[in-house]
Amino acid sequence: MEIQVSKDCIAQGKVKMENAISHLEEDLKSYRAGKANPSIFNAVMVDYYGTPTAIPKCASVSVPDNKSMIIQPWDKKLVPAIVKAIMDANLGFTPINNGENIRINIPPLTEERRKELCKQARAAGENAKLSVRNARRDVVEAHKKYKKDGLQEDVCKDAEDEIQKHTEAFTKKIDEIVAAKEKEIMTV
Questions:
Q1: Domains of the chain
Q2: pTM of the predicted structure, to 2 decimals
Q3: Where are the extended beta strands (E) located within the chain?
């Protein structure tokens, strides 16, 4: 039974680490890397009949080519509200309103903006690493508590070694994800 408690605790820590990776990947999707990516609108909220709603939930976002996107609201009355929300979000481009839909032309990124995005990606990676280390700390502290309650010392030591291996693996994966995003951002 002691070993099962330890395994459950490690599994919970691993889930927290996986959530940190998922959050990082979702966050990095919203970075505009010089090509059209509809997921940048996932965090842009528009006032949809009094309710703040993400653009993809009240309009279809299509990508006709690498340098443009078209947003077609399901309700034509939303066009001005979506244009305002995009302008307020300061995404680095100006929406073109033709009355029925909104066209977005993606300008090429400047070198300065690319470096700034890389810096943001590294910061997001550091936050993910912090979450992974916090998950490891929670598992280690739980095992110390279990040890005081009578859990065998070798079970605690094995659990600490196992969670450390998971921590190192997730940290390496975070570095790989951030490096891939930096490469994508810096590709002209």
A1: 2-29+110-186 (1.10.132.20), 38-105 (3.30.1360.40)
A2: 0.74
A3: 45-48, 51-54, 59-65, 68-73, 95-97, 102-105
